[in-house]
Amino acid sequence: MSGFQQTSRRQFLQGVAATGVASLLLPGSQRAFGYQAANDRPVFATIGLRNQGWSITNKSFQFADFAALADVDSNVLGVNVERVEKKQGKKPDAYKDYRKVLDRKDIDAVMIATPDHWHTKIAVEAMYAGKDVYCEKPLTLTIDEGKLIEKVVKETGRVFQVGTMQRSESGQRFLQAIALIRAGRIGTVKKVTCGINGMVASPVIPKTSVPEGLDWDFWLGPAPKVDYRALPKLREGYGGGVPLYSNCHYSFRNWHEYSGGKLTDWGAHHVDIASWALGASDTGPSKVTPVEYSLPVEYKDGHPVADDQYNAATSFKIRVDMPNDVEMIITSEGDNGILFEGTEGRFFVNRGKIVGKPVEDLKDNPLPEGAIEEVYGGKISKNHTANFIEGMNSRKQPISDVWSHNRMLEICHLSNIAMRLGRELKWDAAKRQIVGDEQANSFLSREARKGFEINM
């Protein structure tokens, strides 16, 4: 038995019970969460370690042991190897190439926190390698990538969780919001507004030398080959220690080559909750209209002309026609959060508050017992990793599944395509194609750079 498989079942149960998720061990199970012997814990590896990669790893030590880490930046890798060793008392193996992680037979699951343009390739290859997968949001760079991931999940039978933590860790208020909608506390929903904030434009970002320790070509991976760009001023706070403006660490979110701006960053949170509340997690919109928007650079045929500045939308107001004649507005204006409006009332919810008369009325007219748990589908896990491991143990998909995530993320991707092309898009939710617009449909996928295709 390896050093990562020494924790006893009693110790493990004590740790789980302390988090309020002792139900993770299903009745009749003959082992804990590992897959070799009765006393095992699951063995994990994290691929992509800056910021969110460390965050999801740090939240998982109470449930799993980390045998390996992978990152294309040796500086980031080295720092996190030390962190993990300090946390669990054993040093994980370190790799630049994630494929060496996938070759390991002792690793049960991988946590993926790379930039978005790498998610699908690593996730698909991990599933074919027999690993369960936890992948950060937004799950995909394109809509067709989502279809591929769904296909491989079905084909391989792997458990796959998306890191949309508003469904559990930071989600009590959001679950309450959905329960209010289901209980009819605002009547028939007519409109939902998702405030997701905007982005700032960048100055011209010059070409410069690649930082020591970073394999820039490998970081680009499936994305087009370009020069590294950065300004010397460092970012403060979250994402600190990296340039304030660049086309790499942290700032990759501002480039369509690697991500989708605020639409897929915060949109992946609030549009998800809104779709869940509307019961539209397995359907989709009929039309997406860019009402107002601002792109920081000139576009031609849907592609940015400049390559030396951020290119994701800085401000926007998108109207989305949802099922049952519900209007969804996705906006960079106003408070970050979700406003639900119905025929009999309205309320607002975000990570810090849930306010409005229907919420105030709960004092005298509370929700039925178990209403919030019913939304979640059972006992609520306050740790997203706990819910993932519960799925690993039961072989059932967790609360943040790929199908509901992809359906709502299609709204975000379509919003970006609509702004890039400057026109409304009609969407066939059954065929998952844009209606009557060949040019727009060309944006549903993107060819990988040669040498970085998905190995299937």
TrEMBL record:
InterPro entries from the UniProt entry: Gfo/Idh/MocA-like_OxRdtase_N (IPR000683), Gfo/Idh/MocA_oxidrdct_glycsds (IPR050463), Gfo/Idh/MocA_OxRdtase_bact_C (IPR043906), NAD(P)-bd_dom_sf (IPR036291), TAT_signal (IPR006311), TAT_signal_bac_arc (IPR019546)
UniProt name for this protein: Inositol 2-dehydrogenase
Keyword Oxidoreductase: yes
Every Gfo/Idh/MocA-like oxidoreductase bacterial type C-terminal domain range: 205-453
Domain of life: Bacteria
Enzyme class, spelled out: oxidoreductase
UniProt xrefs under Gene3D superfamilies: Dihydrodipicolinate Reductase, domain 2, NAD(P)-binding Rossmann-like Domain
Keyword Oxidoreductase annotated: yes
Organism field: Thalassoglobus polymorphus
Ranges of residues in domain Gfo/Idh/MocA-like oxidoreductase N-terminal: 81-163
Biological classification of the source: Bacteria, Pseudomonadati, Planctomycetota, Planctomycetia, Planctomycetales
